[in-house]
Amino acid sequence: MSQVDKQLDTLKSEIEQEIPNDITVTDVKYEGPELVVYTRDPKRFAGDGDLIRRLASKLRKRITVRPDPSALSPPARAEDEVREVIPEEAGVTDLDFHEDTGEVVIEAEKPGMVIGRRGSTLREITQEVGWTPEVVRTPPIESSTVSNVRGFLKNEREERRDILERVGRQIHREEMSDDEWVRITTLGCCREVGRAAFILSTPETRILIDCGDKPGAEGEVPYLQVPEALGAGAATLDAVILTHAHLDHSALVPLLYKYGYDGPIYTTEPTRDLMGLLTLDYLDVAAKDGRTPPYESAQVREAIKHTIPLEYGDVTDVAPDVKLTFHNAGHILGSAVTHFHIGDGLYNVAFSGDIHYEDTRLFNGAVNDFPRVETLVLESTYGGRNDYQTDQEDSEEALKEVINETYEQGGKVVIPAFAVGRSQEIMLVLEEAMREGEIPEMPVHLDGMIWEATAIHTTYPEYLRDDLRDRIFHEDENPFLADQFNHIDAGEDERQEVADGDECIVISTSGMIEGGPIMSWLRHIGPDPDSNLVFVGYQAQGTLGRRIQNGWDEIPVDGWGGGSRGDTLTLEMGTEVVDGFSGHADRQGLENFVKTMNPRPEKVLCVHGDESSVQDLSSALYHDYNMRTFAPKNLETFRFK
Predict the structure, then answer these.
(1) d(CA 224, CA 257)
(2) Which has more pLDDT, 440 or 117?
(3) Binding site for Zn(2+): what residues are annotated?
(4) Residue 397 to residue 28: CA distance in whole angstroms
(5) Which CATH architecture has domain 73-137?
(6) Which of 174, 389, 415, 422 is the most buried (most CB within 10 A)?
(7) What is the Cα Rg of the chain in Å?
(8) Binding site feature residues
(9) Residue limits of the Metallo-beta-lactamase domain (predicted)?
(10) Phi/psi at 412 (5° precision)
(11) Taking the model in full, what pTM does it have?
(12) With bands split at pLDDT 50, 70 and 90, how would you rate the model's confidence at 465?
């Protein structure tokens, strides 16, 4: 009998000692980080609302109780009884019964009403039918991504359970080493923006944090081949952590499965869905540009299948000696500051990922409240001494001014934006400005993946700012459903029609003008001197967006917009830069993030910024707060303890 089997036997005995004698436990298994308890008496478990909480506290495990198949009422009868328990105004759109696990997945427009106060309705469902309810939200805007991911995971449930059981046994294996040390190895995004990747290692465990590409630099990927990374074999990784879905952090995560990785990805649920959307588009753009994609869609599906979603604030075992907690990063939907508690109080490391410290229209500001952090790995995109962004209110006024001026001269406003985050922020500004009469009402055309990304935002309103979440819950107040928003879905003909038409606003991907439909808009509207191209997001060095921002007016458009490869275009439209909409904290926000941490970290590694930015921020934190700071290069290893 293995050590894990002995551990499960012991846990089963402890559970049986804690529960009433008339409750039978038939099996106890690990599924990922959770301990799953199977019982013939799910109704009795549900009858005591505190029983699971008491068990979780005593055993220090996340516990899920599932019914033994013998305890289940037939799905047809159970469906009628479940619908009787749930209030009609919850808007149940689907019930899906899974007899292998005893779970019923309830899709509803208002999940909170299915859950009930402190889970009371969920417990009532189990008391009535024995099934364990799992609740998901019906997207207010139909999302093919959400639908496809849910359908795929439903079809792969059996294999996914096998994966979770294997991961669970790996997490709870016996520790083999008496040594105590922690190392961080930088594989990318040091003294540069993009290709984020780090290895966090202990004598027991190797964890990869992020695995992205570098915008504007084809072929520059993280240093995965080194011994600390995949050079030791992808199968030697214990876990992958994804802080958020932007491609400079997520693009190459599916590649790991091509190289033989078969372990878990820990991220938030919206990041999982957005990763699927963005990486599939990444493959599509590569193919259209005549480049060989680094992996295939099959690897994207593997990544989704191996993802274990976590919620903000949940403390989760991801290895025998590592606990992980996600916190809101305020950057994009589902973005997370990742906090690692290593060993039995041995060491604590936090990776900021990309953060925005102040509240925005979309998100509450980044969380920096941790029990302990000895080392902080901090993004420095706007860490330069002069990187102070315009106040958001002033930025919005500047954008409205450009729109009004362009409208008066009969032109169009074209805004290149990331599909995820900045586009939705701009949509909220425009919706309110038109509603308040601050800019004329006109069509706002959304091109690329923006509409699909917006649909995903509305699927997960609990990750959005409090007041926005409340508006989305009320369909007639959902700002993303405003009449002026038009999804471009007919391709080139529709773009030409818009270009030939009246004044309007176009928001299009890609945000750094590195391919995508924005190239078509430049071809169609670029020659119009009455129109304006408005930059609202960061333009990395080497990207076409940065070059245009710096004054280029002769640009390559290749085959986009119906032209031929090798075509160039002279831009006659004006260009404007409106700061303040970035999803990144500026220099002051980064300093405030560190200054208000209590206790402050002993060491800070400044990463994910141009060379001058990371060095400026590192120097300032050292001088102002007397902490040890570093601006590492790629392929450096830091050893702690």
Answers:
(1) 13
(2) 440
(3) 244, 246, 248-249, 331, 354, 608
(4) 59
(5) 2-Layer Sandwich (3.30)
(6) 415
(7) 26
(8) 244, 246, 248-249, 331, 354, 608
(9) 194-418
(10) -125, 150
(11) 0.92
(12) very high
